[in-house]
Amino acid sequence: MREIGTEELKRIQIEILDDVAAFCQHHNLRYYLAYGTLLGAIRHKGYIPWDDDIDIHMPRPDYEKFLELYNSGSSANRAVSHELDNKYRAAFAKVYRKGTLVKEFHFKQDVFGVYIDIFPLDGYKDEKQAHQCGEIRRYMHVKNSIFTSSMTAMRKMRLTLTKAILLPVTLRSLQKRIKRIATQCSYDSSERVYSSYSRLAARETFPRSIFDSYKMVAFEGKEYRAPMDCDCYLRALYGNYMTLPPKEKQQSTHNSQAYYTD
What per-residue confidence (pLDDT) applies to 192? Predict the structure, then answer.
């Protein structure tokens, strides 16, 4: 296999984003740049300099329709989720490039290549619902985590104990449970919505109105959809988001390597 460098990785990710954006436009599906991708668009007009991934949100109805339709086309990419592949280990969906493979060194090997993440937005019922989703997402994170040489002894001990407690619980049951709880309220009839598959779901709640329309924002020389009120979204997640973090925190949190497989 041939390694994929950082700049090539980003080029592929943007090609995937272009394909997803065009697909959504054609099928009248809603999507929005999310998390650090939106922050990068607003603050840097592209990737955050020390970041190397792309995230988008889709309201639940659009998310489900997207997963139903996307793989029926002739794209060089493929959507994957636990609904589409029972070997898939994550909570939220990804769209990945065929003929590539990503090895993530902190997690058990999954079934995708170079990818972008798709996080559903769900109708918000109450803090208890969001807290439950966040807890289940953290359990999944533990189930998928592997021990690495860089871990401290204390962290290894905590991970060992939590894995032992969760041993009787299957990852598949957690995937089904989080979806069941997340989808209790209709997205389009809720005043507030939340990123239900986030480990911080209880904190990631927003007025639905900020997603009722969109605006185009620049990202790496192109334009993509963003929530109309980007400021409300970014302040909820990052506070004073235009201020750069300290130098020691300007580093990627991802630990993976991508490869071409053909």
Answer: 98
pLDDT digits (tens, 9 = 90+) for 159-198: 999 999 999 999 999 999 999 999 999 999 999 999 999 9
CB 196 within 8 A of CB 178: yes
For residue 169, the Cα-to-chain-centroid distance in whole angstroms is: 23
Pairing of strands 32-33, 192-194: unpaired
Region of 91 on the Ramachandran plot (φ > 0 left; ψ -120 to 50 alpha; else beta): alpha
Angle, vertex CA 116, rays to CA 111 and CA 117, nearest 5: 85
Residue the block writes with tokens 């407690």: 165
CA-CA distance, 5 to 13, in Å (whole number)? 12
Residue-wise pLDDT tens digits, 237-251: 999 999 999 998 888
> What distance in Å separates the CA atoms of residue 104 and residue 93, rounded to the nearest whole number?
16
**Interval 85-120: pLDDT, tens:** 999 999 999 999 999 999 988 899 998 999 999 999
pLDDT number for residue 249: 85
* Secondary structure (DSSP) of 47-77: S-TT----EEEEEHHHHHHHHHHGGGS--SE
* The pair of three-digit structure tokens given for residue 179, joined into one six-digit string: 């979806």
Closest to 140 in 3D by CA, of 193, 101, 177, 191 = 177
Q: Is residue 56 within 8 Å of 38, Cβ to Cβ?
A: no
